[in-house]
Design brief:
By secondary structure, the protein is of the alpha+beta class. The protein has one domain. Helix content is 19%, strand content 34%. Strand 3 and strand 4 form a beta hairpin. It is globular. The chain starts with a helix and ends in an 8-residue tail after the last helix.
Length: 167
């Protein structure tokens, strides 16, 4: 299943999967994928990293050092697993400012944009609304493609504010 997650994420990013053995391109299906140790490096071709905190009127932060931030993200990303549970659906709520999770935007050297953020949804409560978060689950989005992964370390990097040391 981890190999499938790697293939899906890398196809979203338009990157290459490397394995112990012959080099393969995204989309190829090796016959013995489960017997190979797959090395996933989704942040190798990064041009820029920006971070928007999940608060109204949040500023957009640039990484102090893309190289250092990528090193941290690669280390955290290594423990990602596909999320197979269900995610709540958001109600239609109109706000006067951004109301959502913090968002990490990765721009690759091939100008692809990937957004990674804690998985959340909004429900109506009386005349107001409530933001819900799926614990330890992240949304990875590029264009209209969406992938959910479970990663407690990266989730807490977002929620606990550890991202501030890199941005």
């Amino acid at each position: 299943m981890r190999a499938r997650l790697a293939m899906v994420l890398l196809s979203l990013l338009g990157l290459v999967v490397t394995a112990c053995g012959p080099r393969m391109s995204v989309g190829s299906t090796p016959t013995t994928m489960s017997s190979r140790a797959v090395t996933v490096q989704p942040f190798v071709h990064v041009q820029s990293l920006t971070f928007m905190e999940g608060v109204p009127a949040a500023p957009l932060y640039q990484a102090h050092s893309v190289v250092e931030a990528v090193a941290v993200l690669q280390r955290l990303w290594a423990s990602s697993r596909p999320y197979t549970g269900t995610v709540g659906a958001s109600a239609h709520v109109v706000t006067q400012a951004y109301w959502g999770p913090s968002v990490l935007t990765v721009t690759t050297t091939s100008h692809k944009t990937v957004k990674i953020y804690p998985t959340s949804w909004i429900s109506k409560k009386g005349r107001g609304a409530v933001m819900h978060y799926q614990p330890n689950v992240l949304t990875v989005k590029t264009g209209s493609r969406v992938l959910y992964v479970t990663n407690p370390g990266l989730y807490h990097w977002f929620a606990g504010g550890a991202w501030r040391s890199q941005f």
